[in-house]
Amino acid sequence: MQGPAGDNPPALPVLAKKMSPVSDNPQDGMADAAALPDDIPPSLTVNPPFTDHARPGDTEGSDPLSEMERLIAAGEREQAIAHAEGVAAARDEEGWSAGLLSSLAHCLIDLGEPARASGLLEPMMAAGQANARALTVLARAMSLEGRHQEALAALNEASFLNGRSAEVLLALGAARMAAEDTARAIADFERVLRIATDETESDMHARAEAHFRLGETWASLDETERAARHYRAAQADDPVDRRGAAIRLAELEAQPAPVKASAAYVRALFDGYAPRYDGHMTGTLAYRGPELLAAAAEAAEGFSVSGPYDAIDLGCGTGLSGAAFKRHCAALTGVDLSPRMCAAAEASGFYTKVIAGELVATLEKEHGPFGLAIACDTVIYLGDLAPLFGALAATLTPQGWFVFSTERSDGTSDEAMSRGFEIGPTRRFRHTEAYLRELAESHGFEVSSLDVEVLRTEKRVPVESFVCVMRRGAERG
From residue 177, how far is each of 78, 383, 444 by CA, in Å? Predict the structure, then answer.
């Protein structure tokens, strides 16, 4: 999973939000699951559709949303856009619901096409047929286009249709924050806390989101005590920490830094990023991590002559590392937390199999043995690397290779000096050279090379990273 970075990295992670099914009657508001429109099967009532309970392959079928996901996973961007617009054009003839079009528009936003998403939903709004869900998705697209006042108007209309919808109020608060209407944004988030009082999954999700956004708002106003209180409340309602509240609390020095980002946070972040990942990384960010890792491995004595390898790509993302290392692999297993990334990796054709799961747990389950492990821009979501090195020491063959990258820490902060890693300004982990060398020695790895390279730019600034090639000792521990 080569980590997302941007010219303007998002302050909030892109969340895999539960998408409540909606009736075509705008007055109906949010319907329950029993009223799900026929054109959205139960397995696709989330956006993105792939979750812990719906893995790649589980949603195959002929329904429009499954086809959209198939095209996205296969990297068929233009076909996916055309498919969404074709479904919208055939809405009256086919009877597709507003809920389906909202989901397709959400997918277009994930593809980085907010204007096309608006184009799907604005005709419904003009005809008075858009329900609260459609207006909320439309407002998100408009905001991304810079049409903030129009987004606010759409959300105000959505609030008239369903003024007790937590989703609408959260979106309205976010739009007001973008318009620098901070006081009313806070009021919107606080209202969510007043109406989402049950211990149902949906209410807990809404409260966690509202608390997190209030934490972000108060932190931006330098009200750290208030911000910390809301981040802790977000953790209480969302123990798996999909939003990364633990990292925010560490930034406020309100609690010790975590040793890794939560799996749920990383999964949600990358599920939303997957559809535009390749173009953004290789284009906007001038990303060349897989190529640099492959070149470093090939320069290591004995690497090219010892292959091809049974290999594992830890954090495979959409398959960029698979493309760079495929010629050295007899078999290649991909592992990623994000099911949407896994779907794209499967579609790439570079992998023998792809597993949606956590890295260390997967290594312990798969056993190997593997002759090569690759982790390109993956361990930036892990601070403490000892569990990973321990699992690799037990899984790699004698003389097996571990090739990986991580962002470079200069080791001058108190955190880096005491632990060997720190949370950087982009809320990813950075490691010190001394820490990496100590881990290698303690787990029986020889350092073949450990060089500083620039894998990408961020806000037009080069991001220095370590490109590491290590080899397991002759005896497996």
Answer: 33, 32, 51
pTM beyond 0.85: the answer is no
Distance of alpha carbon 410 from alpha carbon 172, whole angstroms: 42
> Which DSSP state fits 275?
G
**8 Å CB contact between 54 and 70:** no
Report DSSP state, residue 51. Answer: B
CATH 1.25.40.10-classified regions of the chain: 17-268
> CA-CA distances (angstroms) from residue 343 to 3, 80, 354, 384?
17, 15, 8, 28
Rounded to whole angstroms, the Cα distance separating 33 from 39 reads 13
pLDDT in tens, 38-91: 333 322 223 333 333 333 344 444 578 888 878 877 778 888 899 999 988 888
Per DSSP, 475 falls in state S
Residue with tokens 């099911």: 339
With b meaning 16 or more CB within 10 Å and e meaning fewer, what string describes 19-47? bbbbbbebeebbbeeeebbebbeebbbbb
Superfamily assignment of 17-268 in CATH? Tetratricopeptide repeat domain (1.25.40.10)
CA distance 244 to 215: 12
Question: What residues in the chain have per-residue pLDDT under 70?
Answer: 1-62, 254, 261-287, 475-477
Residue 209 to residue 160: CA distance in whole angstroms = 22
pLDDT at 74: 75
CA distance 340 to 317: 9
Which segments within 90-220 are labelled E, that is strand?
none
Both tokens assigned to 367: 């056993």
Q: Which residues have CB under 8 Å from 232's CB, separation 6+?
A: 245, 249, 254
Q: Which two tokens stand for residue 272?
A: 């939303």
Domain with CATH 3.40.50.150 in the chain: 276-472
Q: Domain 276-472 carries which CATH code?
A: 3.40.50.150
Q: What pairing do the DSSP bridges indicate for beta strands 421-423 and 429-431?
A: antiparallel
Q: Which residues contact 29 (CB under 8 A, 6 or more apart)?
A: 22, 23, 131, 132, 161, 162, 164, 165
Dihedral pair phi/psi, residue 339, rounded to 5°: -60, -35
